[in-house]
C-alpha cells in the first residue's frame, strides 16, 4: 500500500521550474532512494512533500489523505518528518533536550516526550551523551542526533536529505546500518544522497530526477545500468563498474565518482 504519493507535482520559483510534473509513490515499509545531479530538484521535492513549500501544481497524499499545502507541523503530527540537510541543533540545549523538542513537536500521543527522546538517543547510540551539548559532537554524531530528533516524533515515514553527506566511510557505514535498522522495525524511508554506495546499499528502489523531471526508477541494479541515468548523473565509470561487475570483477553495489556529482563513499 502506498504511504506517500505525489501526483503531477510542479514547483516553480519565478522562472525556475524546480520540479516539473513529478508523479511517484512510496509503499509502506519500503526504503526508496532519490538521486540526481545538483539542482535536479530533489530537496525541493522533499520540501513540497513535507510542507515547507506549497506546490505550484499537483497533489501530495499521505496514507491516502490529501495533505497538499498542509503546514509542516501538521504533516509531522500525521507521521511524516524530514531531516535537515544542514544540521543545526540548539547549541544551548543538551542532546536529550534537543531530542525532546522533536518529541514534543511530533505531538502524537506522547505520554512522556522525554522518555521517547531517550529511546531515540538510545537507538542512535548517543544515550551516554544525553546530558552533553551538541558543540562537543563530531559530524557523524551530529547526524545521528538529527536522526534521533526525527525519530522522537514517532514517524511512519522518514525523509533523509543527504544524511550521509560529509561523513567518513566508517561514519557512513554506521548511518547505513542505522537506516537499515529503522526500516527493519517497520518505518518507511525516503532518502536523498550523493553517496552512491550508501544509497544503493540501503534502497529497495531508486528514483532519478534530472532537471525537475523523474527520468527513471527501478532497483539499484537497474538504475546503475540505465544508460540515461549514467549519462545524466552516474557518469562513465558507472558503465565500466557495471560491465566489470557482470564479468565478476567488481563490486556492483558500488557507486562511482563522476562529473554529475555522484560520490563513492571514499569522500
Ligand atoms: N527557495 C528557492 N528559491 C528559488 N530557487 C530555488 C529555491 N529552492 C531551490 N531553487 C532552485 O530550484 C532548483 C532545484 O534545487 P534543489 O535544491 O531542489 O536541487 P537538488 O537536486 O536538491 O540539488 P543538490 O543536490 O545540490 O542539493 C535549482 O535551480 C535551485 O536553484
Automatic annotation (TrEMBL):
Highest taxon listed in the record's lineage: Archaea
InterPro entries registered for this protein in UniProt: AAA+_ATPase (IPR003593), ABC_AA/LPS_Transport (IPR051120), ABC_transporter-like_ATP-bd (IPR003439), ABC_transporter-like_CS (IPR017871), BCA_ABC_TP_C (IPR032823), P-loop_NTPase (IPR027417)
One of the record's GO molecular function terms: ATP binding
Keywords: ATP-binding, Nucleotide-binding, Transport
PROSITE patterns associated with the record: ABC_TRANSPORTER_1, ABC_TRANSPORTER_2
SMART domains: AAA
Metal-binding among keywords: no
UniProt biased composition (Low complexity): 243-267
Disordered, as annotated region: 232-267
Domain ABC transporter: 4-236
Gene3D superfamilies from the UniProt entry: P-loop containing nucleotide triphosphate hydrolases (3.40.50.300)
Record SUPFAM superfamilies: P-loop containing nucleoside triphosphate hydrolases
Pfam families membership: ABC_tran (PF00005), BCA_ABC_TP_C (PF12399)
Protein name per the record: ABC transporter ATP-binding protein
Amino acid at each position: 500500500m502506498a504511504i506517500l504519493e505525489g501526483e503531477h507535482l510542479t514547483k516553480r520559483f519565478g522562472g525556475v521550474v524546480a520540479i516539473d510534473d513529478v508523479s511517484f509513490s512510496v509503499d509502506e515499509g519500503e526504503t526508496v532512494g532519490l538521486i540526481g545531479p545538483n539542482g535536479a530538484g530533489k530537496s525541493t521535492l522533499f520540501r513540497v512533500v513535507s510542507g515547507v513549500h506549497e506546490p505550484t501544481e499537483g497533489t501530495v497524499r499521505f496514507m491516502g489523505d490529501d495533505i497538499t499545502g498542509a503546514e509542516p507541523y501538521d504533516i509531522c503530527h500525521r507521521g511524516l518528518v524530514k531531516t535537515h540537510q544542514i544540521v543545526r541543533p540548539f547549541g544551548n540545549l543538551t542532546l536529550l533536550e534537543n531530542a525532546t523538542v522533536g518529541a514534543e513537536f511530533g505531538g502524537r500521543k506522547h505520554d512522556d516526550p522525554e522518555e521517547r527522546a531517550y529511546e531515540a538517543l538510545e537507538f542512535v547510540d548517543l544515550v551516554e551523551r544525553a546530558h552533553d551539548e551538541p558543540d562537543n559532537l563530531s559530524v557523524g554524531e551530529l547526524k545521528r542526533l538529527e536522526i534521533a530528533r526525527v525519530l522522537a516524533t514517532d514517524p511512519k515515514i522518514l525523509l533523509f536529505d543527504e544524511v550521509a553527506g560529509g561523513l567518513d566511510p566508517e561514519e557512513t557505514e554506521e548511518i547505513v546500518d542505522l537506516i537499515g535498522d529503522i526500516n527493519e522495525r517497520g518505518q518507511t524511508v525516503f532518502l536523498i544522497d550523493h553517496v552512491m554506495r550508501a544509497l544503493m546499499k540501503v534502497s529497495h528502489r531508486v528514483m532519478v530526477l534530472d532537471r525537475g523531471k523523474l527520468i527513471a526508477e527501478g532497483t539499484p541494479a537497474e538504475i546503475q545500468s540505465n544508460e540515461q541515468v549514467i549519462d545524466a548523473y552516474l557518469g562513465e565509470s558507472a558503465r565500466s563498474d557495471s560491465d566489470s561487475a557482470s564479468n565478476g570483477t567488481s563490486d556492483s553495489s558500488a557507486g562511482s565518482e563522476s562529473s554529475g556529482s555522484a560520490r563513492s563513499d571514499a569522500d
